[in-house]
Amino acid sequence: MPLAKLVEAAKREGRTLLTEVESKEMLKEVGIPVTDTRLARSQEEAISLAREEGFPAVLKIVSPDITHKSDVGGVKLGLENIDAVGNAYEEIVRSVIQAQPNAKVHGVSVQKMARSGVEVIIGASHDPQFGPILMFGLGGVSVEVLGDVSFRIIPITQRDAREMVREIKGYPILEGIRGQAAVSIESIEEALLKISEYMYGHPEVKELDLNPIFVYSDGLVAVDARVVLEEEALQ
Ligand code: ADP
Ligand code: MG
User: Which of 22, 54, 199, 223 is 20 to 30 Å apart from 234, CA to CA?
Assistant: First the structure.
């Protein structure tokens, strides 16, 4: 979906956060593979979408007021059948209402469980001094606890992309350790370049957070995405 349409929708509701569903629509434009993610507005719709997308399914809260979905009980993984999907829908809505009663809820998103891969994170944000910057790291504790990340100022070159991937301490994990197959480093470099180019051309995007991306030996897929729009873009 073109960014202009997503900006329009956000403008109407006076918000800067795009939902996961909207952020993934934007990513398709960028050329980043994402898990096919659809919005259900009722329990019945969630069940029928899960049937279409396939099991095991994943359900997540869709709200422009919720940044970290897991923190409010808004993510249910590995749902094997329609009963599990139905129950997950109710549980998600119940726990989100309890945790954040004033949150505006669009519904619940439905996607298929992605096969597991090495988790990486790509982020972009605006630094008051340097302007747009790009970040890369491995998922989980690597970023949150160890701060093992690389940064470049946008726009990056092919060489920057190469270096960003190789200069993190966790790089050997991408090359494959303990008999694990190497992941597609090329697909990570390509994603970094595409995001850099998109951010450079779209100053109305203030922040982009792909956390996590699953990387495989033959490519990658973003399973979560969050975009924050620049306040000025909404005026
Ligand atoms: P949050 O808003 O809490 O960051 P996420 O969408 O990232 O929510 O989901 C939390 C975790 O669930 C992810 O870090 C990932 O490990 C897992 N997850 C999310 N979507 C999928 C999916 N489609 N397939 C497999 N695992 C997923
Ligand atoms: Mg996430």
Answer: 223
Using the mean position of ligand 2's atoms as its centre, give its distance from the Cα of residue 108 in Å.
Answer: 15
Query: Per the structure block, which two tokens stand in for 153?
Result: 């100022």
Specify the residue with its C-alpha closest to ligand 1, atom 10. Answer: 70
CA distances (Å), 31 to each of 189, 190, 199, in order? Answer: 13, 10, 13
**Which of 94, 180, 95, 195 is closest to 136 using CA atoms?**
195
Interstrand relation of 226-229 and 205-216 (parallel, antiparallel or unpaired): antiparallel
Coil/strand/helix, residue 70: helix
**In which element (H, E) is residue 227 found?**
strand 226-229
Cα–Cα distance, 230 to 161 (Å, whole number): 25
What is the rounded distance in angstroms from the CA atom of residue 6 to the CA atom of residue 208? 14
Query: How many angstroms does the Cα of residue 211 sit away from the middle of ligand 2?
Result: 4
Q: What is the mean pLDDT of the chain?
A: 95
Domains of the chain plus CATH, in order, are 36-112 (3.30.1490.20), 118-234 (3.30.470.20)
Q: CA–CA distance from 36 to each of 112, 176, 223 (Å)?
A: 8, 28, 9
Ligand 1: residue of 75, 96, 214 to mutate (most ligand atoms within 8 A of CB) is: 75
pLDDT of residue 108: 98
Residue-level pLDDT at 180:
85
